[in-house]
Write a structure and sequence with these properties.
218 residues, six-stranded parallel sheet
């Protein structure tokens, strides 16, 4: 492996600028570097603007090589990008064949924000690992349905972060760089979009209440 990207973040900042501080990487247990490559705000909730100001300072000081956000859907991302000084390098959102978010990708491109997919396997919904469309396309290239789903996102310009604790699956997830899906393949997968998440609804007030009720940070 030629390089590793060190990524960290804050789940939901309850304290803003002047109080919230980015943890010093050099003081972290098992620290090997005095900086982090990428630091993310995981939810547009709490005092995320104030926390991002602190992240901008850490970025200017070289503690953070890049700053970004997660789960910022189009209206929130546009407002955020028009407000901050340092444009977020990354927006990590749910992106998979059943929730494709083409409008969100277009807006990220407009602001120069790179899309990163959490849940690229849709948490197993719709039988993604054996889905007939993905399986049939993958068979043409000697690839699995999972590899086909990852390759589809990559060809859309999306970074994928699939989760697995199994070595063989990790290796399969990395083995997606020796083939390309045709335009016809991409069009077939585009038909799988249902247009909404079945994992989490970030517009649901109950989610905000739940997150505010949790003690996430000491």
């Amino acid at each position: 492996m030629e390089s590793v990207t060190l990524n960290n973040g804050v789940q939901m900042p309850l304290e803003g600028f002047g109080v919230f501080q980015v943890p010093d990487p050099a003081q972290c247990e098992q620290a090997v570097l005095d900086y982090l490559d990428l630091y993310l705000i995981h939810q547009p909730m709490g005092d995320y603007i104030g926390a991002y100001r602190a992240m901008e300072e850490a970025y200017e000081e070289g503690i953070l090589r890049a700053v970004g956000v997660c789960n910022f859907y189009p209206a929130r991302l546009a407002d955020f990008c028009e407000t901050v000084d340092v444009m977020p390098a990354v927006n990590q959102v749910e992106l998979h064949p059943f929730f494709q978010q083409e409008d969100a990708l277009a807006l990220m491109k407009e602001y120069g924000v790179h899309p990163e997919a959490w849940g690229p396997f849709a948490e197993g919904k719709h039988g993604i690992f054996t889905h007939p469309v993905l399986t049939k396309i993958g068979e043409k290239y000697g690839k699995s349905a999972a590899q086909t789903a990852l390759r589809w996102n990559v060809q859309r310009g999306v970074t994928v972060i699939p989760k697995s604790v199994h070595k063989d699956r990790m290796e399969q997830n990395l083995d997606i760089w020796d083939f390309s899906l045709s335009s016809e393949d991409m069009a077939e997968i585009a038909k799988l979009d249902i247009g909404h998440s079945e994992i989490i609804d970030h517009s649901d007030p109950a989610l905000a209440k739940m997150l505010h009720s949790r003690k996430i940070h000491d």
